[in-house]
Amino acid sequence: MLKKYRDLWWCQGIFHPMAEWEKAKLPYVLAENVTIDKYEERKDRFNVHGSWKWNAKLEKNGIILGDVTVYELTTQAHEVCIGAITKLIIKQCLPVDYTDADILNLGATRTRAKGFCKEPDGSFRPVKSAVDLPNGSDGLTAPWPNIVIEVASSESVSHAKDKARNYWLRNNRVHDVIIVKLYYDSEIPVPSRMKAWHYCVSGTSVQQKLKPKNKFEFGTHDANGDLLNYGEGTCVIKIPLDCLYHDVNPSTQVPRSTLPDPIILDFFYVRKTILNSFSYLNRITNDLFDFINVVIHIEILMAIKVSKLYLISSYTF
Questions:
Q1: Cα–Cα distance between 128 and 125 in angstroms, integer?
Q2: 173: nearest Cα among 230, 216, 239, 116
Q3: Does the CA dihedral 7-11-16-21 come out positive or negative?
Q4: Other beta carbons within 10 Å of 238
């Protein structure tokens, strides 16, 4: 029965409540033996971004067929986190807007590469030249982004890391990858634990490129549930301009006198933005406590009144 309701997402674009997606083990195979064109047509028609991916599986009569899997279920915290990191990058690159050194916000632009079709949660690059066919990010000649952002909410850390190492960083397609994992401890939609990893291909060896350059916890609590108390400038990812402008058009000068070097992404503000997006829950909680206190007060008064009536009736008899 669950499969029937889950299939509706692929067949009709309906995210049905009876599908119980929150209980699904991800990645979940949503459709099998599908062409990449059909996959892209469904994603566009149903406006699905950041939840599905397509992997080639077999060739039949000269046509490549693959499976569509669900690897992420987006949440408010997931989307706000992407927006917060994106905002930090855009804000620091504002001085070069509309110049030859402009940094382009490609967002979740779809990419293709050797039997895979994936979308990042966010991506950036400068103006770059076309690459050799068919090595482009579109499977043709489009240049790859230099910075990719991946935020995992229901997606596992191992899946996100595998995607970074074996897709984005493979053959130096992307220069820097930022992964964020949001952990939820209860039914409350606010993640208490948040962790970030920064990968960069600047290392000289393959091993260096596949290991995170930096990683840190930046939530309100760590893996042991202990409270984290840190200020600005503690949990940061640094993107040197040489990384941001990797493979920029030869005629474009890296704007070292205009932009900060490195670009600093302070995750103190990412956490603050995520928590601020749930500030309404504090009001609801306070109102609930006030309501409970009123109810308790009324019940106490009623109990006192009943007790008095009982005493009066006992005295009368």
A1: 8
A2: 116
A3: positive
A4: 15
Edge to edge, the sheet with strand 52-60 lists 28-34, 63-70, 52-60, 116-118, 111-113
Comparing CA positions, the residue from 241, 244, 164 lying closest to residue 196 is 164
State the architecture of 76-276 in CATH terms: Alpha-Beta Complex (3.90)
Domain boundaries, the chain: 2-70, 76-276, 283-317
Percent of the chain with pLDDT over 90: 81
Contact, 113 vs 136, CB < 8 A? Answer: no
Question: Tokens 């402008």 — which residue?
Answer: 245
pLDDT tens digit string along 288-307?
444 445 444 555 556 555 45
What was the pLDDT predicted at 292?
43
CA dihedral 264, 268, 271, 277 (to 10 degrees): -90
Region 220-241 average pLDDT: 96
